[in-house]
Each structure stands twice: as structure tokens, then as C-alpha cells.
Amino acid sequence: MTMSSSRQIQSLSTISTEKPPFQFPPTYSFPPFFTPQPNTSTRHSQLEKWSALIQSWCRYYRIFKLSLVDAVETPLFHNAALKKRVSLSEARAIVDWMARADEDGGGGKRAEWVEGLAGKEKTLAWIWWRRPEEWAALIAGWVEETGQKNTVLTLYELMEGDGTRSQEFHGLDPDIMLRSLNVLVKQGKAQVFGNEGQEGVKFF
């Protein structure tokens, strides 16, 4: 989708100047937090805390697609005060865990590796601080509350229009918006039509 290019990967080099710094949890100041723990139960707890931190950090800065190569150089994975950092391989292991389902001993599918990077190591991932089905529920709720059923809206209106400015899905990555709308399509609550980059949606 043509609109997605500007939003695919938010610049991690400028996020700290856009709003007050993110407030890290107490565990971030605990040196062992940055080292893979050998004990199974401790490791599971560590991964849970990292998952929660990554989701909160990305949500705060409105980051949907995270480049680990860039992220390991940011405060997310590098605590300068402690002189501790997470390596790229460890960051990849954390996101791998986040991408697995709970029943597979994972983190509830709160991440997903970006496809289309054949031949490359895993370095780019969607971070699902809201999964597509959760975004879909928010959009459907807004449609219901504002009487938008049987109304045709463009994706641009949903993502950038004044009518959605107060909604959390305002400014949503176009690829995530389409995936979320497809959830509603499968539920019989919407129809998406039009050419790529000019899609419209009708809600039922």
C-alpha cells in the first residue's frame, strides 16, 4: 500500500525528542534483566517482563514495526546508566518468544516477524501492543457509536480524518488497518473494495 512507506518503520533516532521520555519500570534498573537467565522459571518471568516493556514502549511512541538492528541502540535495549545492553541475538530471542502462542510456551502472539525478508536474519517485526483483532474491535465500536454503518469511508478517512482524531486507531499503520478491517470482513461486518492505495470500506 502506497501510504505505508512513511509509516512502516518510525525513526528510532528521533522518538526521544517528540514527547517526554518513556518511564521505564523498576526491573529496567536491575542489571540481571539484561542477561538471559539460565533458570527456566526465571527466564520465563524475564521474557514476560521484556514483552510487557516492549509493548508499552512501542505503544508510547506509536511504533508498530520494530527494527531490532536500530532498537538495540536505543534506550529500550540499552540502559546507559547501568552500562548494560541486550544483544541483537537476545533481542531476537525475546521477540521470537513474543511471537509464539501461549500454548506453545510463548508470549501470546504479541509480535510477528515481517515476511518478505528471505535470506535475511529476523530483524524486523510487528509488535502487537494491540493485535489486528483488537484493533478491529475498536474500529467496530467506533462505527457503532458514531452511526457509520452502511457508510463508505476511505482508509485515509479512518486513519487520518478529523472524525477519528480522538480514537486510538487514528494514525494506524496502513498495513495493520487493512489486516484489522479484514478481520471485520471475515465477521461479516465490513466490505473492503478499491485499488491498492485507494481502498474504501463499508461497514454493516
UniProtKB/TrEMBL annotation:
Compartment list: Cytoplasm
Molecular function (Gene Ontology), one example: structural molecule activity
InterPro entries on file: ESCRT-II_cplx_Vps25-sub (IPR008570), ESCRT-II_cplx_Vps25-sub_N (IPR014041), WH-like_DNA-bd_sf (IPR036388), WH_DNA-bd_sf (IPR036390)
Keyword set includes Transport: yes
UniProt keywords, alphabetically: Cytoplasm, Protein transport, Transport
Pfam families attached to this UniProt entry: ESCRT-II
An example Gene Ontology CC term for this record: ESCRT II complex
One GO biological process term: macroautophagy
Membership in a protein family: Belongs to the VPS25 family.
Listed name of the protein: Vacuolar protein-sorting-associated protein 25
Taxonomic source organism: Byssochlamys spectabilis (Paecilomyces variotii)
